[in-house]
Amino acid sequence: MTIVRVVAAGCGLAALLWAQQFKFNLEHLAAKASDAVDVSLNKDMLQFAGKFLSDKDSDEAKAKAMISGLEGIYIKSFEFAKDGAWTQADLDQVRNQLKPPEWGRIVGVKSAEDNENVEVWVRHESGKVTGIAVLATEPRGFTVANIVGNVNLDSLANLGGQFGLPKMKATPAPAKK
Fold first, then answer.
1. What is the C-alpha separation between 30 and 118, in angstroms, rounded?
2. Segment 110-124, tens digit of pLDDT
3. What pLDDT was estimated at residue 6?
4. Angle in degrees, CA 71, 77, 79, rounded to 5
């Protein structure tokens, strides 16, 4: 019976790690953090949460359609009381898992003045976007997010304001001359 439990736990762990697409391995930061957020919504939880979104509200209906193709949303965010609680090695251990050809960085923003950085990575598989990773750091903050599943980048903003994700304002493309 013990072997069955070990095999079942191993299969469950393998499924969880596959769903996340990469390992966070940031538990050591939780011990140092003054505030920590850990969001772990697998497909079943997303589908359950989707039942509370209204088809009558256009924003909620769009978010509901968007999450139907997702396998999970995983977020770890830490705030620290002082600078230097996280190291470049902490960031590199996550970043080093986001490698071509599956992963490609599409956005990199660095603010020297505020010492803040944001990176957005996209995972492609068979010509489709199957995951998004966001790494955001500042002297007293460290956040990693992974959205797993078939992601329509055009409708990603519709998840803003849902499931604890910030509301994103779509900016129209400039008119061509």
1. 20
2. 999 999 999 999 999
3. 34
4. 175
